Amino acid sequence: MGLRYRLWLVLSAVVLVPLVVAGVVIVRTVSAERDARVAATGDVTARAVGSSLQLECQRLGALSAQLAAEAQLRPAGRGVDAAVARARTGEVSYAAVVTAAGEVHDGGVRRPADPRTVRSCEVHLDAPLLVGVTPVDEVGRAVVVASVDGAWLQQALRDVDSTATVTVLADGRPVASSLGAGAPRRVDGEVVTSRAVEPGSRLVVAVAQPAPGERGLVLATLLALLVAGALVAALVRLAITLLVKPLLDLTEASERVVAGDLDATLPTASDDEVGRLGRSLSLMTAEMRQYLGQLQRSRDELRDNLERLGDALGSTHDLDGLVQVVLESAVAAVEAKAGVAYVAESAGALTLVAAQGIEDLDAPVARRLLPGHGVLGRVASGGAPVRGRLGTSPGEITPGPDDPAGCEVLAVPLRGGGRVTGVLVLLDHLDGSGFGPAEEEEIRGLASQAGIAVDNVLLHRETERLAITDPLTGLWNFRYLSMSLAREIERATRFDRSLAVLMLDIDRFKAINDTHGHATGDAVLREFAARVGEKTRDVDVLARYGGEEFVLVLPETLLDGAVQLGERVREAIRELPFPGPEGGPGIPVTVSIGIAAFPEHGGSPATLLRSADAALYAAKRAGRDRVVVGAGSVAGWDPS
User: Which residues form a coiled coil (predicted)?
Assistant: First the structure.
């Protein structure tokens, strides 16, 4: 059963039951009041009849006294009879004189009662008579009798405005009634009022009046109850609507919230309990929206982190990609405005590898970080994190020349292999506050893992470098030379570009080793690599071919250009002696160079190298210290 129907039952019981009880009480009260009014009217009628009876008794007493007086004055016989006859003319039904001897003088009329035994001013029980008796000295008594019947009562009620039934009782027995002869009728619905004629009298006047009809009163009361019930029903309906509608609105809105509609509007206008509940639910819904937004943001961050993890897994050997993923994860984790990451790719300075949001900063960010210089440099050298605002005010960290002054900074080192491999720097919080200890701890945990990953990438890079470089001179080795030459030949073929290869060999290098030792020979090789490298471009590939032989690949270079470069290299080698042993004189060194061009002297790495090698040996046979082009033609001159 719903709340609306329960309220209907409760309010109906609370209101209608008192209405019904009030109706019953009203009917009873009004009926009793009307009965009291009727009884009062009957009492007036009874008083009037009683007064009439008393007056009649007084009249009969006066008549009997008059008869007694005449009987005393007249002798017995006709005189008494004449007095009795005259007494009967006074509106009496019987008159008599009783002598002392008991002789009755009544003119021989029918006796309604024994005149010798009747008593004064009482209704004779055997007949509806009212008697007046007066003693007569020495004679007896004078008796006057009047009939008390319906006619007499109607005459007595002539001046009384009443429709009541009047009955005269003597010792509880009816002796006269306004209805006529016989006992009075007993009628249902009558109000009976009785009253003694006088205190102690045997005569009682009973007045029966029709009771006021209750049907009209009941109908009127029922009609009033119906009207009141209809009004109460309307008020109850209004009250239920006022009570239930906010609850229904609140329930509907709550169901919408349960269904997932957190934008549902809850009723909060009233100041009652429903309004308070609505406001509480609205606050709860707002918090749920906030929590849902946080969950959605967390889900998005988780998805982004998973994507970054995938990127990191895919960038295991990609230093730039790996560091960028680490930086983005750190920026998102602490809601930083910007961030940079430095990596120690070689001994000495740290290089800026990844950056995010630095274009929105007011302070510039250094591209290189020198260990021990400035706040960030001390993180790289000392390995201790730094957290705070860079500035000159009290409580701030004094920045170095290359530090981003005026920024909130959280800088942690990236450690791997027992050394600092980089520095992760986060700048300014999105909400303008500073970074806290919890955020520092979080970034330190991330940095510890990232440092290992960065160190692995650097180690992998070093391994790759060692696999394709010559450990003595730092030049590319034969493996890298083969890959590069094949790549350049493919590119030259595809784009119809020129390509030249120079093969260089140090003249009489074995004699240098035998004379000055292998350490000096190694120093000569390193110096030779440095001097040749100074004459090459960034796109050129200089590799150690083996022993004292070197190969120089010149992309997009014609044969003439290759010859000119060969001459410059030859001059750079022979121009200055190479450093000899400590304290010893310099060592003069020369070089023989063989040149091959693509595609004139070969269309593959092997044929090009063979052509250059043949040109080199041609230069050797021609006296060394010269440049020879493939097919044995001499392009240089013999300085000797």
Answer: none
CA distances from 529 to 457, 482, 580, 591, 640 (A): 28, 19, 16, 12, 25
Domain boundary among 210, 234, 265: 210
Do both 387 and 532 map to the same domain? no
What residues make up the domain containing 505? 469-634
Assign residue 131 a region (left: φ > 0; alpha: ψ between -120 and 50; beta: otherwise): beta
Same-domain pairing of 483 and 606: yes
Q: Read off the pLDDT of residues 349-390 as tens digits, 9 standing for 90 and up.
A: 889 999 999 888 878 888 888 898 899 999 988 889 999 999
**One domain, residues 441 and 544:** no
As to burial, measured by CB atoms within 10 angstroms (0-12 exposed, 13-18 middle, 19+ buried), residue 423 is buried
Sign of torsion, CA 259 260 262 263?
negative
Do 451 and 561 lie in one domain? The reply is no
Task: Judge contact between 129 and 169, C-beta under 8 A.
Answer: no
Which phi and psi angles does 314 have, rounded to 5°?
Answer: -75, -15
Spatial contact of 95 and 63, defined as CB atoms under 8 Å apart: yes
- DSSP for 500-538? EEEEEEETTHHHHHHHH-HHHHHHHHHHHHHHHHHTS-T
500 and 426 belong to one structural domain: no
Q: Which of 445, 410, 442 is nearest to 424 (CA)?
A: 410
Q: Are 480 and 535 found together in one domain?
A: yes
Residue 123's H or E segment, with its range, is strand 123-124
| Helix, strand, coil percent content, the chain, rounded in steps of 5 | 50, 20, 30
> What are the strands, taking DSSP E only, across 137-259?
140-147, 165-170, 173-177, 190-196, 203-210
Identify whether 261 is part of a domain. no
Q: Which of 328, 442, 548, 567 is catalytic?
A: 548
Task: Say if residue 549 is in the same domain as residue 598.
Answer: yes
In a domain, 302, yes or no: no
Q: Which two tokens stand for residue 465?
A: 């470098």
Structural domain count of the chain: 3
The domain spanning residue 583 has which CATH number?
A: 3.30.70.270
Name the nearest CA neighbour of 249 among 264, 266, 271, 273.
266
Q: Catalytic: 214? A: no
> Which one-letter DSSP state was computed for residue 53?
H
Euclidean distance between CA atoms 291 and 306, whole angstroms: 22
Residue 615 belongs to what H/E stretch? Answer: helix 605-621
Say if residues 274 and 267 touch (Cβ distance below 8 Å): yes
**Statement to judge: residues 453 and 474 lie in one domain:** no
Is 58 a member of any domain? yes
The residue among 163, 186, 210 that closes a domain is: 210
Answer yes or no: is 247 within a domain: no
pTM over 0.85: no
Exposed (0-12), middle (13-18) or buried (19+): which is 312, by Cβ within 10 Å? buried
Q: Cβ(552)–Cβ(542) under 8 Å? A: yes
Q: What is the pLDDT of residues 394-405, one digit of tens each?
A: 989 999 988 999
pLDDT in tens, 198-224: 665 656 777 776 666 667 767 877 888
Spatial CA neighbour of 598 closest among 495, 492, 491, 486: 492
